[in-house]
Fold DUF4287 domain-containing protein.
Amino acid sequence: MSQVFSEETHRNLLARIPHCTGREVSDWLRTVAEGPALCFEEKVSWLRHEHNLAYGHAKALIHEYDLRRAARKLA
């Protein structure tokens, strides 16, 4: 059930995460980094079930984590 979000939707979802969860995106990204080594959709499910996040927020966080990790590899 994977859906592709536009860049604008992705940014909007990230912007709402602190308001909806009470935690900053950077805190969530640390949680993902310290979490289990899983594939994309499994990480989304883990965040949803372990941390009670909405699907869109979980997916946006995992996507952002992957984007930042890829950018670090290129630097």
Summary: The mean pLDDT is 93.
